[in-house]
Amino acid sequence: MWIEPSLTIQLLHSYGGCGTGISDSENDHIYHSELFTLSKRAAKGEPQKLSFTVPIFEPHPPQYYIRAVSDSWLQSESFYTISLHNLALPESHTSHTELLDLKPLPITSLGNRTYESLYNFSHFNPIQTQAFHVLYHTDNNVLLGAPTGSGKTISAELAMFPPLKALVRERMNDWRKRLVNQLGKSMVEMTGDYTPDLMALLSADIIISTPEKWDGISRNWHTRSYVKKVGLMILDEIHLLGADRGPILELHENVLETVTC
Question: What does DSSP assign to residue 123?
């Protein structure tokens, strides 16, 4: 609330200092006070402004009093009343997020057997379930406030896991056993932690990559022959089209259409 009372201070005998204070009509408590010095030059110039903050309680008093009194002369003071009768305060409300009635997520939602083996339970609790997507599938900042023993530590661990890199590594381990060893295919991994050399990419039958890594490479597809050689693209976790990585996945599809035209 911003109030601008027209308060005129008359220092009858000389220019100098005055004390300002604010109180209410129901007790003698002074909510704010300060000493204000008024020079002769300032008194003849623009009106002087004082800014201060005072609390408002519920139920609030009928009015607040603002008083300015000379620190040197008697009867040199000004008085102003601020009525609070029609004051409408904002409704008080809690800023917490309501806990939704969601079906508990199984730990298999992690999509990684190594991560799943860290926990001795089968499902995440309601708080972990509600925060799972933003913690595990995005890089968004999260402030999680919950009672002691509600699973905040495990929620923090979800934010530490790199899910897409983990998916790449899991697919590498699975296809290495079946497609590489049994069928003799050549396969390379391309993530933020590992980038194969050009010869490995050119000779690879299968490239497994995170969306971000492939995005950086496929933007210059016309100068990279191994991008032009791509005959089949498999987009795993396609439900992420509606999440933060959706535009990147769509761009991959458009680039592939452009390359094959």
Answer: B
Give the CA-trace dihedral at 19, 23, 27, 30, to 10 degrees.
-50
Fold of 163-260: Rossmann fold (3.40.50)
Single-letter code of the amino acid located at 142: V
- Rounded Cα gap, residues 202 and 127, in angstroms: 46
| Superfamily covering domain 17-83 | C2 domain (2.60.40.150)
Report if pTM > 0.85.
no
Break the chain down into helix, strand, coil percent, rounded to 5: 35, 15, 50
Burial of 15 (0-12, 13-18, 19+ CB in 10 A): middle
Q: What is the DSSP string of 164-230?
A: HHHHHHHHHHHHIIIIITTT---EEEESSS----HHHHHH-SEEEE-HHHHHHHHTTGGG-HHHHT-
- For the segment 235-251, what is each residue's pLDDT rounded down to a tens digit? 776 655 555 555 666 66
pLDDT of 8 > 60? The answer is no
| Single-letter residue type at 8 | T
The pLDDT-based confidence of 74 (bands split at 50, 70, 90) is confident
| Nearest-angstrom CA–CA distance, 222 and 160 | 36
